[in-house]
Each structure stands twice: as structure tokens, then as C-alpha cells.
Design brief:
Blueprint (H helix, E strand, L loop, with lengths): L6 H56 L5 H36 L3 H47 L15 H8 L8 E3 L8 E8 L4 E8 L2 E2 L5 E3 L6 E2 L5 H6 L3
Antiparallel strand pairs: 1-2, 1-6, 2-3, 3-4, 3-5
Length: 249
């Protein structure tokens, strides 16, 4: 069963709980005394009467073959016992009624409290079911979040760079960008003196990579684009690579 309470219903239930608990606190000692002193006696009297009735039935059954006089004698004896037990039960009921009157707790009041408790128990059961359902949903959500967090924050192994690979600059950029832990730095096979291009972005409309040129680890010239379709480019791995990576663009 799926039961969800809004804030107003929760407040109403809370007020009802407080009111009922206050009434229970007031009536609890009387109800307990009534239960201890009368309910116990009633059960004992009912039990005694039941035992007498059961024994009488058994003995009358066994005496069926002993003749009508034997049955009549037993019937008279058991009737006397049954009458005595009924009188005892009546006395207990009378004392219980008097006790209720003295204590000021009527049967209607006790019944009303019992109904309130029963109603609250049902509502609390519904709330517990709702909470259990929410816990289950939250548990699944937490697991999903945990998986996502693990995947998001887990350190990804760095891709190994193939410095001998020749390919268009855009292909090398797409392959290594964000996967090697540093900027992509390209060169052409005919470059000398550690001449290279450090990539910072892509301009698809112009068909170029954006960045700056370096030579011997220093910024070189003012040109900021590299034709990304040139087919013979490779990843730069010269002696000044660390300087290029840490340099300004």
C-alpha cells in the first residue's frame, strides 16, 4: 500500500496524537486499576464456569448407560454448581460496574479510547508503510548516486601517447584531449628546434586548431591557428615539452 501524507495531514495527526495521549495520561491509572481488579476476575469467573459446564457435559455423557435416576442426580448436582458459578460471575460483573462508577470511567469512555487507539494504530501503520517505501526508494537512489559518484570521482588512467603516430591534427586532438593530463602539443615531421603548436581549442567553422606556437620552449610569433586537416602531424615530445606545457598562451 502506498500512502503519502502532506504537511497539513501530518499536523492534524500530530494534534490528534497529543490530545489522545493527554487523555490517556489522565485516564491510564484508572483504566489500569479497572483492568487489574475487574477484568482478571471476570476471566477467572468465566473460566471456572466453563470448566463446570465441560465437566457436567462429560459426566452426563458417561452416565447415559447408568439409568435415568443417575442422570437426574448428576444433573441436579451440576446445576447447583453451575448456578453458583453464574452467581459468582454476576457478582464480579456487579463489582466491576461499581468500580467503574467510583473511578468515573464509563464503558463508553474506555471503548472510545480503545477506538482512538485502534484508529491511531492504523494511521501509524500507514505512515510506517509509507516511510518503508520511501526508505526503499531513497536506498535505491543512494546506490545510484554512489555509483555515479564513484564513476565521476574515480581517477581515470592516463592514455598512453603514441609519439610515432602520424595523423591530422584534429584527429590527434580529439584522441588525446582530456585523456593525457596535460595540453595537446603538436608538431610536423619537418619542424626543427623544438618548434611546435600547443592547442587550446578548435574553430570548426575555420577548420583550424587554436593555440600558440613555441620554439625552444618559448612563445614564437603571434600566429594562433593551426590547419587541423594537414595529414602528417604527431604529438610533440621534444626536450622543451615541460616548458611548453607550463608556458603562457
Amino acid at each position: 500500500m502506498d500512502y503519502t501524507m502532506d504537511e497539513s495531514e501530518m499536523l492534524d495527526l500530530y494534534e490528534e496524537l497529543v490530545e489522545t495521549l493527554q487523555q490517556l495520561n489522565k485516564e491510564a491509572p484508572k483504566i489500569k486499576e479497572l483492568y487489574d481488579n475487574s477484568q482478571k476476575e471476570l476471566e477467572q469467573a468465566r473460566s471456572a464456569l466453563q470448566n463446570v459446564l465441560s465437566h457436567a457435559k462429560e459426566e452426563l455423557t458417561k452416565a447415559e448407560t447408568a439409568g435415568t435416576k443417575k442422570i437426574a442426580d448428576l444433573s441436579a448436582e451440576r446445576k447447583k454448581q453451575i448456578d453458583e458459578q453464574i452467581k459468582t460471575l454476576d457478582d464480579v460483573v456487579l463489582r466491576a460496574a461499581n468500580l467503574q462508577k467510583v473511578l468515573g470511567v464509563s464503558s463508553d469512555t474506555a471503548q472510545k479510547i480503545n477506538e482512538q487507539i485502534s484508529g491511531l494504530s492504523q494511521k501509524l501503520s500507514l505512515i510506517e508503510e509509507s516511510v518503508d517505501g520511501q526508505k526503499a526508494r531513497f536506498s535505491k537512489l543512494e546506490k545510484r548516486i554512489g555509483v555515479l559518484e564513484t564513476a565521476f570521482f574515480a581517477p581515470n588512467p592516463l592514455m598512453e601517447i603514441d609519439y610515432s603516430e602520424l595523423a591530422p591534427g584534429i584527429d590527434l586532438y580529439n584522441k588525446y584531449n582530456g585523456r593525457i593530463g596535460r595540453p595537446v602539443v603538436l608538431e610536423k615531421p619537418n619542424y626543427t628546434k623544438d618548434y611546435c603548436f600547443r592547442v587550446s581549442g578548435v574553430d570548426e567553422e575555420q577548420g583550424v586548431l587554436i593555440g600558440r606556437y613555441y620554439q625552444m620552449g618559448k612563445l614564437y610569433g603571434n600566429k594562433t591557428t593551426f590547419n587541423y586537416s594537414y595529414p602528417y602531424c604527431r604529438m610533440f615530445n621534444g626536450d622543451t615539452l615541460d616548458e611548453v606545457i607550463s608556458g603562457e598562451i
